[in-house]
């Protein structure tokens, strides 16, 4: 039973590391996709743009500060192309596909296929095995070792996020408590002031002694 749960978790983790999407790019338009990625993570991708005579398609990958990580102009149509980069900090990354159509041409929409991988799924273990002259079993063990490290890092990251959220909740509760006490003191002070004010007013009008 435990082994089955572990295998299911590994499968979910692998799925989370791979993203595939297909969409249509209208003439003279652009479409962008955003994704949050942690620091020191290898990100690779494969993309293909369908053929359209006389039209150009470009793509660019940027971080939240506008730094260009990868780009290509006039993408060859109908060819599977690749890109890769390594993140330096935890950030939101954006990949945009842009369509360019001459003014004298009406243009047609193009189909864009994009597959991105990150972390251990982005590594080429076949290439690593060939370079290090490893056996297939050793390559698989290497992959499982990296996968285990990724799981440990994910759990550590989740625990850190949980602690940060708990600290934030505790700080918020403390601020709410202090604000409530301050509000009560203000209301008490205003009530006391009104009491003395009306008492003085009624005495001046000789309504009370």
UniProtKB/TrEMBL annotation:
UniProt domain GOLD: residue ranges: 30-143
Membrane topology designation: Single-pass type I membrane protein
Cellular compartment(s): Membrane
Pfam family, one: EMP24_GP25L
SMART domains according to UniProt: EMP24_GP25L (SM01190)
Keywords: Developmental protein, Membrane, Signal, Transmembrane, Transmembrane helix
Example of a GO cellular component annotation carried by this entry: membrane
Transmembrane feature ranges: 176-198
Signal peptide positions on this chain: 1-20
Primary residence: membrane
Family assignment from sequence similarity: Belongs to the EMP24/GP25L family.
UniProt protein name: Transmembrane emp24 domain-containing protein 10
Species of the source: Acromyrmex echinatior (Panamanian leafcutter ant)
């Amino acid at each position: 039973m435990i082994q089955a749960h572990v295998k299911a978790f590994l499968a979910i983790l692998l799925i989370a590391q791979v993203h595939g999407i297909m969409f249509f790019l209208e003439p003279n338009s652009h479409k962008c996709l955003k994704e949050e990625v942690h620091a020191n993570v290898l990100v690779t991708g494969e993309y293909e743009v369908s053929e359209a005579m006389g039209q150009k398609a470009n793509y660019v990958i940027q971080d939240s500060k506008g730094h260009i990580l990868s780009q290509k102009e006039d993408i060859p149509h109908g060819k599977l192309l690749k890109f890769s980069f390594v993140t330096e900090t935890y950030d939101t990354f954006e990949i945009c596909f842009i369509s360019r159509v001459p003014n004298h041409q009406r243009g047609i929409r193009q189909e864009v296929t994009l597959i991105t991988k990150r972390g251990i799924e982005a590594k080429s273990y076949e290439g690593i095995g060939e370079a290090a002259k490893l056996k297939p079993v050793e390559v698989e063990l290497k992959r499982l070792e990296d996968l285990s490290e990724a799981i440990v890092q994910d759990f550590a990251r989740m625990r850190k996020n949980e602690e940060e959220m708990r600290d934030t909740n505790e700080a918020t509760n403390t601020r709410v408590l202090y604000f409530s006490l301050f509000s009560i003191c203000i209301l008490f002070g205003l009530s006391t002031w009104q009491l003395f004010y009306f008492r003085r007013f009624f005495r001046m009008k000789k309504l009370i002694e």
